[in-house]
Amino acid sequence: MNKEIAAYNKGQAAGERAICDELAKLIDAHLKGAENKIWHRHPVWFLEGNPIVGYSKLKAGIRLMFWSGADFEEAKLEPGTGKFKDASLTFTDVKEIKAADLKRWLKKARVIQWDYKNIVKRKGELVRLK
């Protein structure tokens, strides 16, 4: 696990740390070849410079977000505001994490991607990559 991400996880309360550690472990295992780092103060995984998945601490729990998740057609993932193509899910207990679901979503994340890497260049317009 990336040292910065390990430090982020260690900085969480015990229950939240367990969620973060499990998410990082599963993402690393099923999104092989992805770059990962702390980006905008949160752990994020990238494919070819494009953000794919990350998590962050909210009052309600740990939110797992897929940048292109709104197009995954997965009932458990809540679409964002509609301006972008993100979708997320919030965990309050590590037992809520279903490895099979996460593996399926990460597989979809490889084949369904919107170009967030160049969104500033395109003045906010998203273009489908895959």
Describe, in plain words, how this protein is organized in 3D.
The chain has helices spanning 3-10, 14-30, 99-111; strands spanning 35-39, 42-47, 50-58, 61-66, 78-79, 87-91. The protein is an alpha+beta fold and 130 residues long. The protein has a single domain (3-111), classed as Aspartate Aminotransferase, domain 1. A six-stranded antiparallel sheet has the order 1-2-3-4-6-5, with helices on one face. The model has no long low-confidence stretch (mean pLDDT 92).
Quickly describe the structure:
It is built from 3 helices and 6 strands; from the N terminus they run H-H-E-E-E-E-E-E-H.
Short key terms for the protein model shown above:
single chain; 130 residues; alpha+beta; Aspartate Aminotransferase, domain 1; 3 helices; globular
SSE diagram, text form:
Blueprint: H1 3-10, H2 14-30, E1 35-39, E2 42-47, E3 50-58, E4 61-66, E5 78-79, E6 87-91, H3 99-111
Antiparallel strand pairs: 1-2, 2-3, 3-4, 4-6, 5-6
Helix pairs in contact: 1-2
